[in-house]
Amino acid sequence: MQLAHLLAFEAVARNGHFTHAADELFLSQPSLSRQVAALEAELGVTLFTRGRTGATPTTEGEALLPIARRMLADAEAARQEMDEFAQLRRGRVRLGAPPTLCVSIVADALALFRRAHPGVDVIIREAGSRELVEDLAGGALDLALTVTRPSVPDDPSVVSEPVFTEELVLASPAAREPGGSTPITLSELATMPLVMFHRGYDLRLATDAAFASAGLVPTIAVEGAEMDAVLRFVEREVGVAVVPQTVLSGRPALRGDRLAADLRRTVNLSRRVGVPLAAAPAAMERFLRAAVPPDSDLTGRYPPVT
Fold this sequence. Notes:
This protein is α/β, with parallel strands linked by helices. Helices cover about 40% and strands about 25% of the residues.
């Protein structure tokens, strides 16, 4: 039962005339008559008594009229509801990101997104890249920022596009005496008291792999913490930590020193293969891309390292 046929039927019943109904719907009278006839053929009943003075609903037509009006009202309500989503007045985004990106890129993008689309609900899932890829593949997330690491297996149902690469730096208290302009070697780093993330962290895996490759054993002051705790511990001079450059944004109590080791990470935008993003997740993707353009070297956006 097509809505166009019900719309034509309701207009004729309300106007009592095919010509007036056709004018209202901006249709030719033959076209409107064909739509009503098609509905009658589908239902197997006559809906109008046609005369020279107009059209009067039959008993069957009278019975159908309130049903048709409810169906048309429901269709209009559905259209308005979907328009709310399409115009981003409502909606939902399920976004995943590692904690290191939640305190930097995601925070920047989310602040702008919420100002632009306050009616859209945003659900954040903080986890390592491996878990985020699994959540994407299982349909629990719409979109995720992930980090390219050997520990993150490829999943044919998830596609990841690199958006930027940043170096890992040594975070230490800003009041600490600068170590000079020469990058810190892994040997030097191994002698410093380190605040280390828990062993499932992408950054912990990268740091452990660098030390192991160099045959070094780090000096660990504290381990097992999450990003916010790691940065706070460094501010309180518990130790130093290897972190992405972007997390130093907005933390004047911290400074960053370059490492001689080539420690970098590539951040990706990941999504499910062959699953189009709804309006709200698609908008969030645009805000995330704008937060860090693909060709950005981060200069001027985040604190420079020394």
